[in-house]
Design a protein that fits this description.
This protein is of the alpha/beta class. It contains 15 helices and 13 strands. It is 37% helix and 18% strand. Helix 3 packs across helix 13 and helix 6 packs parallel to helix 8.
Length: 343
């Protein structure tokens, strides 16, 4: 049973809110976006999901499903005035140049991707096509955009964390649940481990007296990660944000549950599969907002002038059933802060 509670306060206030974007998009008439008589092409690049989970009027992938619904509500419908070109890297990031080259042959109007490595390392290969992205850490610090308020190039979109602040908040929350926490393993890619967000996370962990270690995981080598986890025996597992974590949400949830290791994740979907806690944004909601940005570009807006949106709402979800299975007692104060409790 789930219990809904008051939303947890965000780690820090931000200038732009998803809510404002939703209001602006919701009050606009769909016909103002959809240009009659023209068929638009939008490329959707996923990191891990199989193509079968992406296609159709109601895709299995929750991010793709919200994206398709968002476009539909704004008047863009596949088979009528829209062609959606779904692609997946299937965890093989070396395929990005190949996939981009193939996509560009069909001359898309917009590219959407939740894969930050694409905009950081392969932006020239997009050849000036507008890109809407869902980033995990700062697009300014990595040089992708000039500023959040005026990106100034061909990339715009959303940041699902607030420059590492949400990562630090996750660390504090799992420490509150596990007061004796001393060693924690970050299970994720090398890119995630070397990111600005993790750099700040490591500094925060040091202040809290928590030793952090890296367990490499690319989305295809969970068995190798299992060997490291068993050898290192961390007190808990920290899952970073990003497409690899979200794309493997079920596998990762089942992985930590089977090994009886407390875990905190950025996505609530992982908690449904056995992770102890999550703190983060609603990815489905962000994907829907991203569809609104794509619609604006199709209607003539320029990415250079479209602010990078940051979240203002973060949800804390606690799997009390999993806590009991682990023999843990979650402090009442922490339970009272939860937006959702799974019992």
């Amino acid at each position: 049973m789930d219990r809904n509670r008051e939303p947890t306060a965000p780690p820090q206030p931000t200038r732009w809110a998803y809510l404002l974007a939703a209001v602006l998009l919701g009050t606009a008439c769909a016909s103002a976006y959809a240009q009659k008589g023209k068929v638009h092409r939008v490329a959707f690049i996923a990191a891990l999901s199989p193509i079968s989970d992406l296609k159709g009027p109601e895709p299995i992938n929750p991010s793709a499903r919200s994206f398709v619904r968002g476009l539909r509500d704004l008047g863009y419908v596949e088979g009528r005035n829209l062609v959606l070109d779904f692609r997946s890297l299937e965890g093989r990031y070396e395929r990005i140049p190949e996939i981009l080259a193939d996509i560009l042959r069909s001359k898309p109007d917009v590219i959407f991707t939740g894969t930050q490595i694409l905009v950081e390392r392969h932006l020239p290969a997009t050849q000036g096509i507008p890109v809407v992205t869902m980033a995990t850490w700062s697009l300014v610090e990595t040089g992708v955009v000039k500023s959040l308020s005026r990106p100034g190039g061909t990339v715009t979109g959303f940041i699902v964390d607030v420059d590492g602040a949400a990562e630090i908040k996750r660390l504090e929350l799992i420490r509150d649940a596990l007061p004796k926490l001393k060693r924690m393993a970050l299970l994720g890619t090398t890119v995630a481990w070397e990111s600005p967000a993790t750099r700040d996370l490591l500094l925060a962990a040091k202040r809290l007296g928590i030793a952090m270690l890296h367990v490499p995981y690319t989305g295809t080598d969970l068995q190798a990660a299992a060997g490291v986890v068993e050898r290192e025996a961390p007190d808990a597992i920290f899952l970073p944000g990003g497409a690899v974590t979200f794309g493997n949400r079920q596998r990762l949830g089942e992985f930590v549950s089977a090994r009886r290791i407390p875990c905190i994740a950025p996505f609530k979907e992982i908690v449904d599969h056995g992770c102890l806690m999550s703190y983060g944004v609603d990815i489905a909601e962000v994907s829907r907002a991203a569809a609104g940005y794509v619609a604006k570009i199709l209607a003539g807006a320029k990415p250079a002038d479209m602010p990078i949106q940051q979240p203002t709402k973060f949800e804390l979800v606690i799997n009390l059933k999993q806590a009991k299975a682990l023999g843990l007692t979650i402090p009442q104060q922490l339970l009272l802060r939860a937006d959702r409790i799974i019992e």
